[in-house]
Specification:
The complex is a heterotrimer of chains A (444), B (219) and C (125).
Chain A (H helix, E strand, L loop, with lengths): L14 H8 L3 H15 L2 H9 L11 H5 L8 H14 L6 H13 L17 H15 L4 H13 L7 H16 L16 E4 L3 H5 L1 H14 L3 E2 L12 H4 L2 H17 L4 E4 L3 H14 L9 E3 H10 L13 E3 L3 H4 L5 H11 L30 H6 L2 H12 L4 E3 L3 H13 L5 E3 L1 H8 L5
Parallel strand pairs in A: 1-2, 1-3, 3-4, 5-6, 6-7
Helix pairs in contact in A: 1-6, 2-7, 5-7, 6-7, 9-11, 11-21, 13-14, 15-17, 17-21
Chain B lengths: L1 H8 L1 H28 L2 H5 L2 H12 L5 H5 L1 H20 L1 H11 L8 H24 L1 H6 L2 H21 L5 H21 L4 H19 L6
Chain C lengths: L1 H26 L3 E2 L12 E2 L2 H7 L12 E2 L2 E2 L21 H18 L6 H4 L3
Antiparallel strand pairs in C: 1-2, 3-4
Classes of the chains: A mainly alpha (444), B mainly alpha (219), C mainly alpha (125).
The complex binds protoporphyrin IX containing FE (2 copies) and iron/sulfur cluster (SF4) (3 copies).
Chain lengths: 444, 219, 125
């Protein structure tokens, strides 16, 4: 191809891919590919492949494509061409090297952000095609090492971070203690049967960001919410198995999650500010278990905060002074249309909101999602270089005065932090919870 | 000449109509059955209201963000598709042939209008071709079959125009025209041109997912 | 200036030629025309009446210039003095009359496997 060399990804060595690929034989590859295609795909895959008119109109949807100076290898359909089309054309007769590269493309050069589905005139679901590629790679044992390790943690402990059962309870009690320094009678109710709300978080919260649990407790307390958290596995709503293509494990994870909530007979699940976990609980995991919609009503924190503020349960004492910009996490906008609620909360808590463009359901992904950030250090630059366009968007917001980025999603935080550092943006990144905690009227 | 003409305008027309209509029905039914067996979610999540909402947004020019980003392409593709479908259905020559054979007829375009519309189709095909060669993101996706399909679509219009204007060799061209029209019809259910049959379903499904489940627009 | 004069001259000559040819063909029919067709979509079909009939060995005028009564052809009666459209009324939609003409000419050609059958063979530009 005639593309300049700078546009091709640097050779990255990933233990998981190298080891996994070294164990493959042509027979095994062919057998696995064809069995997945035959047993697990059907009308959708066939129609999407049959009718794509190769028009390239989806290209400009993708931040990877835009950030690589319109390199066609990074266009949505271009990535499908290098993966799914090829294995279908060759009927599974591809070599280990091909699988390695296909795994890399599907797992680290696409965030499954579904922006392209809004740009293809046929609504071809590229993310579905690329997750199917990941599924095949999973079954072949060729998945990037870091995310596979996370998936292992999920299967061993039912949470993402190897948090042991007692460590989880310890963490909740510790945060309760801490919070009592501020509000003496505050509680983090564990295992409260019949509570109104079951609050779930992602594994990294007890592991690295326990402060977020503290803040959530303060917000719940101030709003007078009847809430609880479980003492058993199921508390972690996150799901890397959904992104490695380990759908069996994904279903088990969601099962423990819903089951712990129904054991506590709660009315509703509220989940912390995480995008991918929301996708897993609201949209994907439930389907794997045979539920059209989640068996228990559930909302993302954005919607929960929106209701608290709208109903006057939380009052804002003094608005956040620095001008902010709002990053729409794909999984809450293209996954649930929460953009206006996010803005409502932001406007209620901040003096000034400066929009990035495009925004709302047309936002550019942070390039961390879809499990890409979980593929770890080897792929850090893949996503940072692959999202120059986000940096440009942020620079434009900054030029208009924005100092703080609000991103109501854990992955977005991680992704945006790397972008902010690498491109020298020098902006703070905050959750909505951080802002509410900072600006709300707190009970004595 | 009589024998060839009678053959291409008689039995072959039947063959092509049967393959075209039968093929479309077959593709639809077999895809519906496959979906029932392997992708039952499609039935569970298809939602008429949101499917139609999405389809309407995508069949009206400039209703989607992407169409606004590509004004020239949008105008060309709408003009192309509208002319492509209207000309063969409402061309006077076609109507007369149908009337002669089956004694049914309907409204028709004036020959001069049809002539301009034919040129629009041919011009659009040239635009698509140039785009395919020149624009890297389209070129990267292009395989020889894409050129072939473009040729299959352009052929009845070029040959029809040729015959109508009685350029050199128009008698032979008339025969080639009929053949190329038949090839195009047959190609619809069995190539990427099947996007004609499946457009409403893929669009509708994505519209349903985005509208009913994700509460967000998809245009 | 010289060029302009030449152009004018040739237009004049051409116009005269057309008028002469048209007048002549009133006598010896060279094309099929029907005044019912108000806007002409195609040139009238080329048709050399006498030569055609000699070659096709048609003696009975009623073969084409027929007269029908109550759905039956009236033998011994012919209609050379009338236009087809006097019976085959047009009522706004030319398609039925066009089809009548086509079936009369093309239909017979198909049957006899002789004579023109494609649009451009009759509607010569
Ligand atoms: C299936 C059998 C078909 C037959 C028997 C047929 C027959 C004809 C005939 C007799 C003409 C008139 C030529 C003349 O004026 O001398 C014509 C013109 C034309 N036909 Fe067809 N046709 C067929 C299929 C198609 C198809 C599938 C298409 C397009 C998709 C098509 C597009 C056209 C066009 C564009 C013209 C010329 C219009 C113009 O420039 O004024 N035809 N066809
Ligand atoms: C209702 C029916 C149809 C719909 C909704 C439809 C829709 C589309 C759409 C959305 C595209 C994508 C790119 C673009 O916008 O141009 C497309 C491309 C195309 N369509 Fe259709 N189409 C229909 C019928 C047909 C038919 C009947 C044909 C030909 C027989 C056709 C030929 C083509 C071609 C050749 C392209 C590709 C242009 C390129 O090479 O980039 N379409 N169509
Ligand atoms: S990253 Fe997003 S826009 Fe790009 S291909 Fe993947 S799903 Fe599509
Ligand atoms: S926009 Fe849709 S049809 Fe066009 S190349 Fe992309 S996926 Fe294929
Ligand atoms: S991390 Fe955030 S922006 Fe990125 S994919 Fe997830 S939800 Fe989208």
């Amino acid at each position: 191809m005639a593309e300049p060399a700078v546009n091709t990804t640097k050779q990255i060595t990933d233990e998981g891919l190298v080891k996994g690929a070294s164990k493959l034989t042509p027979e095994k590859i062919e057998q696995v590919i064809n069995s997945v295609i035959k047993a697990e795909t059907g009308a959708r895959l066939k129609t999407y492949v049959d009718i794509c008119v190769h028009c390239g109109l989806c290209s400009e949807a993708c931040h990877f494509y835009l950030s690589h100076d319109n390199d066609p290898k990074f266009s949505p359909a271009g990535k499908v061409k290098q993966t799914i089309w090829e294995i279908l054309n060759k009927k599974g007769k591809v070599d280990a090297e091909f699988i390695k590269r296909a795994s890399e493309i599907a797992s680290t050069e696409c965030n499954l952000c579904r922006r392209c589905a809004m740009y293809c005139p046929f609504g071809i679901d590229i993310a579905y095609l690329l997750i199917t590629m990941r599924r095949i790679c999973h079954k072949l044992g060729v998945t990037p090492q870091y995310i596979q390790d996370t998936a292992h943690s999920h299967s061993a402990t039912m949470n993402q971070m190897w948090v042991k059962d007692d460590e989880w309870i310890d963490c909740l009690m510790w945060q309760e203690d801490e919070a009592r320094g501020e509000i003496p009678n505050i509680r983090i109710p564990i295992e409260k049967e019949g509570a109104e709300i079951y609050y779930s978080v992602i594994g990294p919260e007890p592991k690295f960001r326990a402060q977020l649990i503290y803040q959530a407790a303060v917000i719940m307390h101030a709003a007078g919410v009847d809430w609880t958290m479980p003492a058993t596995p199921g508390w972690d709503n996150s799901d890397m198995c959904m992104f490695t293509g380990d759908f069996e494990m994904m279903a088990r994870l969601k099962k423990v999650h819903y089951e712990s909530a129904s054991r506590l007979k709660v009315k509703k699940i509220v989940m912390g500010e995480c995008g991918h976990a929301f996708r897993s609980v609201y949209d994907v995991g439930n389907r794997a278990l045979g539920w059209k919609m989640p068996p228990i009503p559930m909302v993302h924190a954005i919607e929960f905060y929106y209701e608290l503020i709208k109903d006057g349960k939380i009052k804002i004492a003094k608005k956040y002074q620095k001008p902010v910009t709002f990053h729409d996490p794909c999984n809450t906008v293209r996954g649930r249309g929460l953009h206006e609620m996010g803005r409502f909360v932001t406007n209620a808590t901040c003096e000034k909101l400066i929009e990035m463009h495009p925004n709302r359901e047309h936002n550019y992904c942070c390039s961390a999602g879809g499990g890409v950030i979980n593929c770890g250090p080897p792929y850090k630059m893949t996503r940072v270089d692959g999202n120059r366009i986000k940096a440009e968007q942020l620079f434009a917001a900054k030029a208009k005065g924005a100092k703080t980025i609000i991103a109501p999603c854990h992955n977005c935080h991680g992704g945006l932090e790397d972008i902010v550092h690498h491109y020298g943006l020098d902006m703070d990144i905050k959750f909505l919870g951080d802002i509410i905690y900072e600006t709300m009227e707190k009970p004595e | 000449m009589h024998d060839i003409y009678n053959f291409v305008s008689g039995p072959l027309v039947w063959v092509s109509f049967v393959l075209f209509i039968g093929g479309c029905i077959y593709r639809l039914i077999s895809m519906a059955a496959l979906a029932k067996k392997k992708d039952p979610v499609v039935y569970d999540y298809m939602n008429l209201r949101y499917a139609l909402r999405s389809i309407f947004h995508w069949i009206i020019p400039f209703r989607s963000e992407n169409m606004k980003r590509h004004p020239v392409f949008t105008i060309v593709t709408f003009a192309f598709h509208i002319c492509l479908i209207l000309v063969p259905l409402f061309l006077f020559a076609h109507i007369i042939l149908i009337k002669e054979s089956w004694n049914i007829s309907w409204w028709f375009l004036s020959d001069s209008t049809a002539d301009v519309m034919t040129l629009i189709v041919v011009g659009s095909c040239i635009y698509f071709l140039v785009r395919r060669i020149v624009q890297p993101e389209v070129k990267f996706l292009t395989s020889p079959s894409d050129y072939l399909i473009l040729a299959i679509v352009a052929a009845p219009f070029i040959t029809g125009f040729w015959t109508y204007h009685q350029f050199a060799g128009h008698k032979v061209m008339g025969i080639i025209h009929i053949l190329s029209g038949e090839i195009m019809l047959v190609a619809i259910p069995f190539t990427r041109l099947s996007h004609m049959i499946f457009f409403a379903f893929t669009r509708g499904y994505m519209g349903s997912e985005f509208g009913a489940i994700r509460h967000v627009k998809d245009w | 200036m010289k060029k302009k004069i030449w152009t004018l001259c040739s237009v004049f000559v051409a116009a005269v030629a057309v008028i002469v040819v048209t007048a002549y063909s009133q006598e010896n029919v060279k094309s099929v025309q029907d005044s019912a067709f108000k806007t002409k979509m195609r040139p009238g079909a080329v048709f050399l009446h006498d030569e055609h009939n000699k070659k096709a060995e048609i003696d009975d005028c009623g073969t084409c210039h027929h007269v029908y009564k109550d759905g039956f052809k009236v033998e011994d009666e012919t209609s050379e003095d009338r236009e087809c459209s006097e019976c085959h009324k047009i009522d706004g939609d030319p398609v039925p009359l066009v089809t009548k003409y086509h079936l009369r000419c093309k239909g017979c050609h198909e049957e006899k496997k002789a004579g023109p059958i494609m649009c451009s063979e009759c509607h010569v530009r």
